[in-house]
Amino acid sequence: MIKRLSKVVVFVSNLQEAVEWYREKLLIEPETVTPGYAVFNLGGCRLLLSHGGERVPPKDPSRDLFPLAVITSDNINEDYQRMVTNGVKFSTPPQQTDWGSTSAIFYDLDGNRLMLAEDEGD
Prior knowledge:
The protein is α+β, with helices and mostly antiparallel strands.
């Protein structure tokens, strides 16, 4: 029986730069860093940064598909403002969705599309 999502893998072009970006911009610390990958524990689901990707050109249409991962916040407006101040590039500010959450789309330094979200009732 399937129980839960345990990991989300994001491929990055430079692991060391990516680890520092996630530390500085999202204020999260890795629990493991090896030469080939880094793991961040985000409330039981692990975000695994893996060396082997390449930077996505800004105009690449594949950037505008679904986000690779959704990172949940308990105060999206506060986290959004902090992340913008830290230089994170967002394509949308926090907006109410049809399914009852508030979300904002942002990109990491490799152009990976991620979502910051706060669910009603969380």
